[in-house]
């Protein structure tokens, strides 16, 4: 909880800059790209996240990555700050918090959907639209297949949990039968 | 002959002697003897009086004990009545407590029985429900097709829209 609060503070700082220059979406892309590079290279991750190397060496590595990714000054400054304060391991949390701020600014809400069978793109879009009308926001669902649902779908989005699966109907039937 | 003559003189002498002795005894022994007899008389009289007093006290004591003895019967009767009343009271109290205890035990047993019945019924319902759901799930899995899933997705979309 404290870690998330700290992460939100850093994300808010970067978002304020991005909102001002209108480039908050780009900053998100750059942070995501940086995170992918770090996560793909365990040595880089260890070098940046763990304070084993001397600070100037870690700064050199960070500068090399920033140059290679052609990152803009604000996200690069945030990364430098995190390195100096030994808080590079907060980066995944900061990215999540920043993404939520970007989504919120763009009226987008992300959620997860579970489907018993593979779902067509058309059906997914229709579900997102229906949910978007309900939440008065654009909805983006990350769909996953879950055969345990037997049939139907279940979505968790924007504080909503809507379960239209056969599994849920059987659970409700079970609850009714045991209550009687 | 001389012995015969001296005998009367001796006898007389003895008599005079005796008379003198008696006279001396009367002269000197009369008062102490009289005092002794008086003292003896007084002592006997005192003892007789004491005996009379003791007899009188014994009579009084006897009267007291006789009075007490006569009251003892009524005292025993009163004690017996009181003891019986106390016993009856204790008996009633014990019976009341026993009735109360029996009533509470009956109530507890009833509640325990009802609770156990409730739990048993819940277990039975749970068991029946689980088996029913298992059977229903198996049947649905066998019969359920992609088309059914698509129909459910359509229903889901309609439901979400209808809630709006």
Task: Reconstruct the topology from this structure.
The complex is a heterodimer of chains A (180) and B (164).
Chain A: H1 2-21, H2 24-40, H3 42-49, H4 55-69, H5 73-84, H6 91-105, E1 108-115, H7 121-135, E2 138-145, E3 152-157, E4 160-165, H8 166-179
Parallel strand pairs in A: 1-2
Antiparallel strand pairs in A: 1-3, 3-4
Chain B: H1 2-143, H2 146-163
Provide a descriptive summary of the structure in words.
The complex is a heterodimer of chains A (180) and B (164). Chain A is α+β, with helices and mostly antiparallel strands. Chain A folds into 2 domains: 2-104, N-terminal domain of the delta subunit of the F1F0-ATP synthase (Peroxidase, domain 1); 107-179, Glutaredoxin, CATH 3.40.30. Chain A contains 8 helices and 4 strands; from the N terminus they run H-H-H-H-H-H-E-H-E-E-E-H. Chain A has helices at 2-21, 24-40, 42-49, 55-69, 73-84, 91-105, 121-135, 166-179, and strands spanning 108-115, 138-145, 152-157, 160-165. Chain A has a 4-stranded mixed sheet with strand order 2-1-3-4. In chain A, helix 2 crosses helix 3 and helix 4 runs antiparallel to helix 5 (73-84). The longest helix of chain A has 20 residues, at 2-21. Chain A is elongated and about 70 Å long. Chain A starts with a helix and ends with a helix. The model of chain A has no long low-confidence stretch (mean pLDDT 90). With 164 residues, chain B is mainly α. Chain B has one domain (2-117). Chain B has helices spanning 2-143, 146-163. The longest helix of chain B has 142 residues, at 2-143. In chain B, 3% of the residues are buried. The mean pLDDT of chain B is 90. The chains are: A alpha+beta (180), B mainly alpha (164). At the A-B interface, helix 7, strand 4 and helix 8 of A face helix 1 and helix 2 of B.
């Amino acid at each position: 909880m404290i870690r998330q609060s700290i992460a939100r503070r850093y994300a808010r700082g970067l978002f304020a800059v991005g909102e001002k220059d209108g480039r908050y979406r780009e900053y998100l892309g750059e942070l995501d790209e940086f995170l992918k590079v770090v996560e793909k290279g365990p040595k880089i991750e260890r070098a940046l996240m763990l304070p084993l190397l001397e600070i100037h060496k870690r700064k050199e590595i960070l500068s090399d990555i920033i140059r290679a990714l052609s990152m803009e000054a604000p996200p690069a400054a945030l990364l430098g700050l995190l390195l100096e304060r030994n808080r590079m391991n907060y980066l995944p949390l900061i990215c999540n918090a920043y993404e939520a701020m970007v989504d919120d600014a763009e009226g987008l809400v992300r959620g997860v959907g579970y489907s018993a069978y593979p779902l067509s793109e058309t059906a997914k879009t229709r579900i997102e639209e229906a949910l978007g009308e309900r939440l008065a926001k654009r909805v983006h669902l990350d769909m996953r297949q879950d055969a345990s649902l037997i049939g139907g779908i279940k979505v968790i989005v924007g504080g909503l949990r809507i379960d239209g699966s056969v599994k849920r109907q059987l659970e409700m039937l079970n609850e009714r039968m045991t209550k009687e | 002959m001389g012995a015969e003559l001296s005998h009367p003189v001796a006898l007389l002498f003895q008599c005079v002697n005796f008379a003198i002795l008696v006279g001396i005894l009367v002269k000197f022994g009369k008062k102490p003897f009289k005092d002794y007899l008086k003292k003896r008389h007084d002592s006997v009289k005192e003892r007789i009086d004491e005996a009379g007093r003791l007899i009188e006290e014994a009579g009084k004591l006897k009267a007291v004990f006789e009075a007490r003895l006569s009251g003892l019967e009524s005292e025993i009767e009163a004690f017996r009545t009181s003891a019986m009343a106390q016993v009856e009271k204790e008996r009633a109290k014990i019976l009341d407590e026993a009735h109360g205890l029996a009533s509470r035990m009956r109530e507890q047993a009833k509640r325990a029985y009802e609770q156990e019945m409730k739990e048993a019924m819940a277990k039975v319902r749970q068991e029946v429900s689980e088996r029913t759901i298992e059977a229903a799930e198996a049947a649905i899995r066998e019969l359920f097709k992609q088309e059914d899933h698509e129909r459910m997705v359509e229903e889901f979309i309609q439901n979400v829209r209808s809630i709006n």
